[in-house]
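Second opinion, please. Pick holes in both lines of this record:
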Amino acid sequence: MAKILYLMRHGETLFNQQKKIQGWSDSPLTEKGRKQAEIAGNYFRENHIQLEHAFSSTSERACDTLELVTDLEYRRVKGLKEWNFGTMEAEHEYLNPPLPYGDFFVSYGGEEEQAFKKRVSDTLLQLMQSVSGSTVLAVSHGASCRQFMRNWSHTSDVDQKERIGNCCILKFAFDHNTFKLLDVINHDFSNLE
């Protein structure tokens, strides 16, 4: 039987609001971000999804999001951290190159794209191999989620071309060491402005 991984991006943060580059640097959830996390938590309750294991990036914004989604005990995992943007951290987003970033950030002391993709993908594979339960929540970051999606795009018919928004949930099936994207859950946050 396939296990299910719910991979989720954290809620809106102060740096998101201020349009600052946020990788390994951190900033707190905004009030809107906290409400986004509560709405995401309601998704699991309303759909009677019983989470059995939970993991979070070591970044505070991810841990705080997870704690608003579920009261399940969880483990903080460094491998789920966002892309390391080097000295570009906390700078304004207008300094970002056009997508895809590739290895742009390496010259600023940041992480190479393929190394980043491998780190996140290997971490999630090891976590899913290690759990006995069948339903897992992992709270991570926008670029982390996107790189993981890209790593498994060859097995999946589902895709999302648009940006991965705050508290977006990616539902993957995991079977025989293979992930397949089943669904992209985007919540309606229009009333939170």
Observations:
- Residues 103 and 112 are 5 Å apart (CA to CA).
- The radius of gyration is 16 Å.
- Strands lie at 3-9, 53-57, 75-77, 135-140, 169-175, 178-185.
- The longest strand covers residues 178-185.
